[in-house]
Amino acid sequence: MSVYVIGLAMHPAKEREDSLRLEEMAYHTSRAALDSAGVSRRQLDSVTLGACDELDGRPISSMLMTAPAGGYDTDEIKVTDSGASALCLAYARFIAGESQLGLVASWCKASKTDVQAVMRLRGDPFYTRPLGIDGTVSDAMFAQAVAREFGLDEAELTDRVIEAYTRAARNDRGMRYAVPSRDAIFESPYDALPLRSAVRAPLTDGAVALVLASEQFVDANPDCKPLARIAGAGWSTDSYRLGGERLRALISARTAWASALRQAGRKGAAELDAIELESPTPFHEAAYVRAFGIENPDALSPSGGAYAQNPLFCTGLVNAAEAVLQVSGKAGPVQRRSARWAAAHSCHGYAQQGNVVVVFEGVGAPS
Description:
This protein is of the alpha/beta class. It has 14 helices and eleven strands. Strands 3-2-4-7-1-8-11-10-9 form a nine-stranded mixed β-sheet. Strands 5-6 form a two-stranded antiparallel sheet.
């Protein structure tokens, strides 16, 4: 049983989307994804949302967001881990035979939310929350742990930031930030040791939607041309504790990676043409590259990853869209030649407690 991506859309990346409400962003993005797939909302039999009440600023946000996202009078499930987690759940629904044509949508207006206040409230009320640990502090703890584990030095980390911004500058779907100089990076203040402000990927506003179809639907609707096949999907959640062993071992990331590649019949990173990592800092990228065995720098986040756009909750689903564009030959200025296999990675929670990896295979002739 094969599951295909037959359409996708991304909201234009912005530092701050003031002209549209969140509902309007979801509507326009889902509408564009359906149009790109050549299907109508009425044909959908499932909608899977990746959304967070706290980040949306709406209690039970799906009550307000489902209809504009395409789920009016349609079976809907919401996942609150990440946009990429919603993709995995939707894939599981297809494999189980519960859906033939579905939409996966996620969004985030990071500019309208006190992200670190949300992260502080996610700490347990007796031990973590009173310490004031938030996303910045937990990322810094992760950075310290992996720096010691892998012997990371400032020269490598700075190179990774510059290279990521350089890749991102070529991506016309991203913010196209100016590439920072080494001096600008070295002179930027620490947000939390060892994270300097200039090495952290800026947050953006955004939305993304993918249309999934079963093999039966594609066979019955030859005008709907698949962009990619979902070849494998893996996800894992690690311990909530921020202990040194958990932080440096990257067990959930390794587990998700191994599971997705095993399902896809890939032996390792060398058999992938593009690998879109969710790396909000160079410490993350350096750690994931080592954990996943990525040795080909040309395959590493051709889109620029979070340094192109970083709508937080749905950054991983943006990575999935970028991976699909690669294997369908539609990635534009960041297209990898003859890309046939691509992986998209996502992480979420305190210090990347949860990880998701999805592998895509192109279904047309390599470009």
